[in-house]
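Re: folding output
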Amino acid sequence: MSLSSKDFQAVLDTVNLIYSVDDRSALFRAVCEKLQKIIGLYSAIFIPADPAGTEAETARPYFNGYEIFDNSEGAMLIYLDYYSTLDPFVTGGWWQTRNRVARNTDLVPVSILRESEFARDFLLPYAGIFYCLGTVLASQGDTVGILGLHRLKSEGDWSDRDKEVFSLLVPHLARAMRNLDIMERNSILTDQRNGIIVIGKDGKLFYMNETAKQIVGKMPLDKIPDPGIGYGPVFFKRKRKGYRVRTVPADTRQKGKMILLERYPANPQMSVRSTRLGLSTREEEVAALVIQGYTNREIAEKLCISGWTVKDHLSEIFEKCKINRRSQLASTLLQVRQ
């Protein structure tokens, strides 16, 4: 689907807006108002991921702190209490994807959706909507939340153009919301175990805490990978230790940014346990990505290895851990009792 120059300008204007708002509720509303004009929508919801969840659990919805745009609070509560389990986005497993936009009619034919309990008993009578466009927002390995846009049945389904416009905005919206979350969570910034580097607007080093100095040493800062607007986590090794990288930009037009370096795995139990089990460094990397929910194909892309190599590593990991399913890996490596 090719967008017009007018569409691209609208997207660029919205991206600039996204990075200019410093409050999540205000950001959600501002983007919804923009999208009303660009692609048209009746209402929208945002359900944040659980901020207390572990990295392996961050897809779990957190029903406190949700946002509603032009719809009923009562309908939202009814959805969360019961009807979310009947939502095609949930039943079809789509919620396991990241930053991928889908229509509910991409997942279920209109004829089946129309006759479903979800549509007949909830969408139409309670929410007053029928067509939905949704995504699971994620940035740099952090799941941010679920965003859904809605239309009345009389307004018609979302076009490919609507879907493309929304898709272009999703990674930026995910990153902006995650940036706000990081700045509000003082714990991640004040934890002395985390390295913090601040690059000024002129592109030069402005500040580096003691932890970052120990990690980086004399290594040029441009050797630290930048996750950018990607949805997946980015890691780098230094002195035989692994670190996860997060970045928070000053804004879309300036070079200034803050770089956060976290020891990975963050849970020392996993490192100790994996060492005792005899996992190699590469096997630890594969195991860490499996625990975060990545598929074999995604792991292969991230580690620049073949799918067959990933399978070979998993076979070795399963044998050393004495397990036979991926779902058993987290409990084996992250267990508290050694």
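--- second protein (sequence, then structure) ---
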Amino acid sequence: MGTVFSLSATVFQQPVAEISHAVGRKPAFLLVLAVFSIGSVVAATARNIADLLVGRAMQGVASGGSVLSAIVLTDLIELRDRATWLSVQNGIQALGLRWLFWINLPAIAISAAGLGLLLGFDRPDGGILPNLKKIDWWGIIIFTPSAVSLLAPITMAGVLFPWSSWKAIVPLSLGFSGLVALGLHQRYFAKAPMFRARLFDRWVTICGFMGQAVFGVCVNMILYYLVVYWSGVRGFDEILTGVMLLPETFSIPIAAILCGLTIRKTGAIRWAMFVGWPLTVASLGLLWLMDTQTPLAALIVINAGVGLGAGTIASSLNVALLATTRREDNGHAMAMGWLAKSAGMCLGIAIGTAVFTSRLQVQFGKVPGEEMTAESFLRVLNHVKGDPAARDAIVHTLRVLWIICCGLSALVGLLCCLCKYPNINDLRKEQQAQELQEKHCADSRMLD
């Protein structure tokens, strides 16, 4: 269920962003809300799993359009004020699944009304139809099935079928081949490429995209497998497990807000890299201490450190991407950053599943007659539940995941810290001076 949603959201982010450049933000945003509403109704009225999957897929497609909120802010707000923007993800517990889908509709209605009344129609230059013809449709046609073919086995292998299965190998091969074809198309044939080459002509911007991807990998992997720790190792029930995730889920938005406000005030970005990445790496390393006897107070502090570091990174990376690209490319840079983060989240699931199941195969041995997957592991775990040796095995397996996250964060964090970032207040002054110069030149031409 989650795979269908995340896969749809990741694949359709870039096409939705491209269409919004052609038809304008407002029509694209309203279309996204309409699709999400239909998906919510389909999911809420589903009588079987197939209908529910269709509804979740439609919600995922529309969720890919959530990148438009960041692009709209990029269009409307100056760079120094964008630093305070934050997307807060809320979860609802203890409500029935049908009510969970119905509750989206009032929020969507309010959002649609606000967009219709308050957001102007930014009619693109040259008209909608000519701009639609300029869209890199061949790029979208190549990218969409290639991304699905690549990400589907990445998120499903090790869960529904083993990595050695043809169900994983064939789609992965086709997906990689499709991405190679996409690169050739973007480089030699596309007149208005979906992935602008100049977004990758500066090392600082490339590091920003890498940071977004690693953020997605680590946050998704940690949140997924902290559930395994709290429920499988410490024996907490579902409610307590959700409560014990609050150190991350609560501290990430707080840190992001504080970081954004500080960047807005000082204009400096680099300090946030030097605070966020080391704090994240140190806290991820301390996750090694999580075992069956670690005091809860220490666990809360360690996990809060992970959240505070991740929130600081999330906010600073968004601003860094916008500050290191041309203003006319800001929307494309934001869309690319969101794509990198979403792809990283899918990779986080894949890496975590592959490592977790392979390490547990070493610990428990292969289930007779089948590969060790997450499903077969659950069957093994039911037989050893309450066994201290089994809990210790899970602890040692999780430590491998924590170290992987720590190593990835250390490597990419070092690269991000070595980069030089412009002061956004200085950029604002330069932009104002350039606008005054352009206005003066225009006035001079009128007088002539």
